[in-house]
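To: structure subgroup
Subject: Chain for Friday's discussion

All,

I'm putting the inputs and outputs inline so they're searchable in the archive.
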Amino acid sequence: MIKKLKHLLERSAFGVCSYLGEKMGIASTRVRVYFIYLSFVAMGSPVIFYLFVAFWLNVKRYIKQKSSVRWE
């Protein structure tokens, strides 16, 4: 039950923290904690970065999806 909820939250949160964690080779929970701490220290400016990365990941996924469709 908890794993299903965690997967749903990660997927609905655009997967930015898990993506960054995979790229940097650290756990996604650690990335989330650092993001939260940084948000408090920097008065919310990391939220703009988070939204930018989420947008970029969605565009990247859209481009990959379109390139995999082959026209006959």
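Points worth raising on Friday:
The mean pLDDT is 76.
Residues 2-68 form one domain.

D.
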